[in-house]
Write a structure and sequence with these properties.
Helix content is 40%, strand content 15%. By secondary structure, it is of the alpha/beta class. It binds (3S,4R)-3-hydroxy-2-oxopiperidin-4-yl beta-D-xylopyranoside (XIL).
Length: 380
């Protein structure tokens, strides 16, 4: 897409930039990006709740960290609800990732059709607002198109489907995403390799074949293995460590490990355990991203549970900043108005740093305080 190779996206980008262009301090020093239409205090517009300044993205950028939020409907919402969501998103975050629109079932709806429109819109939005994009995800056992899982394939056919999907999607977004979650959740909760459509159809080597196909399609994008419940040391993290050690030792092009960090309040590994774990992966030469951070609480949330949640957010981001290979923290959403938690974990919610009305919660303040006192810089 860069350099005019994809005029379609350039047109989309131009259109989207007209429809919505938000601006943020440190990425727009010349002030060339117009102010979003409903900045708090602007006459005639409803105000959003006040937050401390500078915003999180400026604090993070000052020390070479990216802070992001996954987005889904926030990009498409119309009216005041959409304006509010996008205003807060671009004010606070300098990275984003698609919650769903780059997954197999969305982006590859029939054997011969790719649906890039929604992903392209996300990329255009991010680029217009000085945000980098983490691509998510190429190979996973969930959200696979039914034409794929419902088909009967020989091993060579399945391998060709895997490689073609990766090649097409990675090539399309070359130059527009900084990292890909190439393989997501390949390990079961006990650390064994998960039996999935891809492992069954392609065979156990599907993981390395996926990484090699991604590298062949884009020589420079960072290629990640991404999983949950591997943030602290333990059997599943040990299994991930063994798998990545093996891949690295055989020259498979893996650049990083993503720790999803979906937590229950009070149910995290300790900060020192996360630091120890991140450090051993970094010693393999891997970059570290926190990719899907949220901390769910039992509903209704209480002042006490929200304070614990704030400490939990602080510990995760602090563990990241203690390890120089950790360069990005992405939250799985940013407002309790739009989160996968309530519909996925019955009785749980309030997992994000802004409440549903964009009031900053104690978790927001904790992140702000932590980043305000961070001085050790790193290179993206
Ligand atoms: C979730 C999305 O947020 C939901 O909207 C969707 O219904 C299911 O998937 N781990 C991942 C993410 O890697 O892709 C998942 O996203 C959350 C768990």
């Amino acid at each position: 897409m860069p350099g005019g190779r994809r005029p379609l996206l350039r047109t989309r980008l131009a259109l989207l930039a007209i429809v919505w262009v938000g601006g943020c301090g440190s990425d727009d020093p010349a002030g060339t990006i117009p102010t979003p239409p409903n900045q708090p205090g602007q006459p005639g517009q409803p105000s959003l709740p006040a937050t401390p300044t500078p915003p999180l993205r400026d604090l993070a950028a000052g020390v070479g960290l990216r802070i992001g939020a996954a987005v889904d409907q926030e990009i498409r919402l119309t009216g005041q609800a959409g304006t509010n969501a996008r205003t807060v998103l671009v004010r606070e975050f300098n990275a984003t990732t698609p919650g769903n629109v780059m997954k197999h079932d969305h982006i590859h709806p029939s054997p011969t059709t790719y649906a890039f429109q929604d992903g392209d819109s996300l990329v255009a939005f991010a680029e217009a607002n000085g945000m980098v994009v983490r691509g998510h995800t190429l190979v996973w056992h969930n959200q696979l198109a039914s034409w794929l899982t419902g088909g009967t394939w020989t091993q060579p056919q399945a391998e060709s489907l895997l490689v073609t999907h990766i090649t097409t999607v990675v090539s399309h977004y070359r130059g527009h995403v900084v990292a890909w979650d190439v393989v997501n959740e390949a390990l079961a909760d006990n650390g064994a390799r998960r039996a999935t459509f891809w492992s069954n159809a392609v065979g156990p080597a599907y993981i390395e074949k996926a990484f090699r196909a991604a590298r062949a399609a884009d020589a420079t994008v960072l290629l990640f293995y991404n999983d949950y419940n591997i943030e602290g040391t333990g059997p599943k993290a040990d299994s991930a460590y063994a798998m990545l050690s093996d891949l690295k030792s055989r020259g498979v092009p893996v650049d990083g490990i993503g720790f999803q960090a979906h937590f229950q309040v009070g149910g995290l590994p300790t900060r020192s355990d996360m630091i120890a774990n991140f450090t051993r992966f970094a010693a393999l030469g891997l970059k570290i991203h926190i990719t899907e951070l949220d901390v769910r609480v039992p509903l209704p949330a209480t002042a006490v549970s929200l304070q614990t949640q704030a400490q939990n957010y602080r510990d995760v981001v602090d563990a990241c900043r203690q390890v120089s290979a950790c360069t990005m923290v992405v939250l799985w959403g940013f407002t309790d108005a739009y989160s996968w938690v309530p519909s996925t974990f019955s009785g749980w919610g309030a997992a994000l740093p802004f409440d549903a009305s964009y009031n900053p919660k104690p978790a927001y303040q904790a992140l702000h305080d932590l980043l305000s006192t961070t001085t050790q810089s790193r290179a993206w």
